[in-house]
Specification:
Elements lengths: L5 E5 L2 H12 L12 E6 L2 E7 H7 L13 E5 L3 H8 L6 E7 L5 E6 L5 E6 L3
Length: 125
Amino acid sequence: MKLASIRLVTDDLPALTAFYSVLTGTEPMAPFGPDDYAELHTEGSIIALVSSAGIERYNNTAATAAANRSAILEFEVDDVDDERARLDGYITDWVQEPTTQPWGNRSMLFRDPDGTLINVYSASR
């Protein structure tokens, strides 16, 4: 079994697509049309974004936008402090500034526009 993607449901597909495009440095793709769905392909993963209307239309209204408080999306980078500087002024909901964790990783936490928690970290060397 292979994990194919993480799909996030949103009421504002353009805003969330723009957010993840800036965060990941990738251009979004809309393989099924631009209205209900977008994908951002990163190294080894796909972030799929879908509108609430798309969930209603194609997934029997099985998910609710901006309701997640139990998952954390994690991105590994070379230097957390460089990423903090790059994202300064763009991220509006900082949860934790860059911190060295007891196990050696350096990480920071913030939320996307819909409230999903994001951990950006660099592995201890």
